[in-house]
């Protein structure tokens, strides 16, 4: 069995999940996401936990179980925390500034790089 697919997914308190006709809908503070589930996979939602179950134990079923579990977990994270991009600059002589909605990066080029 898939190691990733066997892990249960915890549902946070402020998240509403509906699963009907092979379509899962996740509603949270940041919005709503919807996805259709492959017919080889089923979801079991009980007591604030989602378990991904494969219909047939074969190579494709195990692959889809892990994929579906990752997709559903990312949907839950997306509607609660949203998307975040982190930038790490390491080294000597590099500098980053925030001017309004623009990030000005001095990375050793002749001109600074402006990123909106």
User: How much beta, percentage-wise?
Assistant: 35-45%
Based on secondary structure, the structural category is alpha+beta
End-to-end separation: 45 Å
Number of strands: 9
Order of helix and strand elements from N to C terminus: HEEEEEEHEEE
Summarize the main sheet. Answer: 3 strands, antiparallel
> What would you call the shape?
elongated
What features would you highlight for this structure?
116 residues, alpha+beta, three-stranded antiparallel beta sheet, 2 helices, 9 strands, elongated
Plain-language structure description:
With 116 residues, this protein is an alpha+beta fold. Helix content is 22%, strand content 38%. It contains 2 helices and 9 strands; from the N terminus they run H-E-E-E-E-E-E-H-E-E-E. The strands form 3 sheets. Strands 1-6-5 form a 3-stranded antiparallel sheet. Strand 3 and strand 4 (31-36) form a beta hairpin. The longest helix has 22 residues, at 59-80. The radius of gyration is 20 Å and the shape is elongated. The model has no long low-confidence stretch (mean pLDDT 92).
């Amino acid at each position: 069995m898939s190691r990733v697919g066997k892990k249960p997914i915890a549902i946070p308190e402020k998240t509403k999940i509906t699963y009907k006709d092979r379509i899962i809908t996740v509603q949270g503070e940041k919005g709503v996401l919807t996805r259709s589930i492959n017919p080889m996979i089923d979801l079991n939602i009980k007591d604030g936990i989602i378990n991904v179950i494969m219909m047939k134990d074969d190579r494709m079923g195990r692959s889809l179980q892990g994929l579906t579990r990752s997709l559903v977990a990312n949907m839950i994270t997306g509607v609660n925390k949203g998307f975040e991009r982190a930038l790490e600059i390491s080294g000597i002589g590099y500098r980053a500034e925030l001017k309004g909605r623009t990030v000005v990066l001095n990375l050793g080029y002749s001109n600074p790089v402006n990123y909106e």
